[in-house]
Fold:
Amino acid sequence: MRPVTMRRADLSDLISLGPKALCGETLKAIKTLEISIVTHGLLNPLIVKHSETGLIVVEGHKRLMAAKRLKAAGKLPRDLHTLPYVILGEHIEVYNAPMSLLSNRDQFMEVGRLHTQGHSVRDIANALDSPVRHIRDILSITKLSRHLQASFLCDLISIEQARAFATVPNKEAQNALMQALGPFAKEPDIISAIYSGETVLTIEDGNIIILPSRTPVEKTRMAA
Structure:
């Protein structure tokens, strides 16, 4: 991901063209966001475009409304009296990166904490204003080898790369694949390598694993 210019603006400078009437599911969603913002902070920047009257919010209407309601109630965290935003056209890298204001480690710790407390994946997604698929991807980090987990937590590999490596159940095979492809391999390259079966791993009992095999293959069987 290339660097993205993250700016900040006062709430009064941000203009939402979203629905003004708050009721039903819309109000419920905003109240859920209020709890999330107070508990976890703002996890994603707003996406805006310039206009003569101010900054028009393109994505993040509910987040902005939740922040304004919290400010009116005197509950908005001090560090959110200005909100982070990205200009439309510069947003591609963060648009598809849920919880982009958190490091990989912070995402993993927060999702793990809520999951340990017994919350469902959907409940966690609602609490963290994140797609269900992203929560599932974060939880899949536990399927990685220690080496790959550490690489993810230190932001050396992305969630997309981690998701691809996690499709290989054998953790030694994951490490072998990482060593073969290097840390800059993109998700499609990793998946392609898995399905091509080109990576071979020798394990301690003398057998070998050829990706994407799910189980060890004895050398005698391979010779046959």
Summary: Residues 213-224 have pLDDT under 50 and may be disordered.
